[in-house]
Amino acid sequence: MHLLPLFPLNLVVFPGEKLNLHIFEPRYRQLVTDCLETGQTFGIPPFLNDQVQLIGTEMRLLKVERSYPGGESDIRTQAVGRFRIVDMLREAPGKLYAAGQVEDLPDDTPEDPALKLRISRQVEQLYGALSLQKLFIELPPDYRTFDVAHHLGLSTEQEFELLQLPTEPERQQYVLTHLEHILPVVLETERLKERVRQNGHFKHLTPPNF
């Protein structure tokens, strides 16, 4: 267990994800300065339903892209893992920003190849229906659920449910269930849009023989 500075946001960050942030509040300007000086990481726990959630993502500051005269900055960060808050402090000792005593959540479970194959097929169908095939094709063959989760139409609450799941097969099953639910809806919507587009156009139809 260790003390981790906290930067709650109303979003979910997945391990491996790169996140760009504009920093303007004095407490988080102080946090960026501390990260630059000490190399420390910080945590982003989602702020959902008017409260800070206990599962979050540990972030590493990669670069200050731009500093502004008033003290604001644009930074690049990357998520390095998940954690659980055991005890939260509204202010870290001697600091303006919050912190928490946290425990790391290991994530070394192997994927289920059969589930991954089914997910890949469902995602390919989904992206095809939405004309997003390029996004799917560019995914590496060793992708994990966290790599595609932001591109599957999950709500923020659903993304947080996914973040909490402890193993990759559990996350694969969650994603697959979601895809199997939304894919028929998307396909039917696309068929409806095509019918609407065809209304009023000259139709080249072959009459039936009877």
UniProtKB/TrEMBL annotation:
<dbReference type="InterPro" id="IPR046336">
    <property type="entry name" value="Lon_prtase_N_sf"/>
</dbReference>
<dbReference type="InterPro" id="IPR015947">
    <property type="entry name" value="PUA-like_sf"/>
</dbReference>
<dbReference type="Pfam" id="PF02190">
    <property type="entry name" value="LON_substr_bdg"/>
</dbReference>
<feature type="domain" description="Lon N-terminal">
    <location>
        <begin position="1"/>
        <end position="183"/>
    </location>
</feature>
<dbReference type="InterPro" id="IPR003111">
    <property type="entry name" value="Lon_prtase_N"/>
</dbReference>
<protein>
    <submittedName>
        <fullName>Peptidase</fullName>
    </submittedName>
</protein>
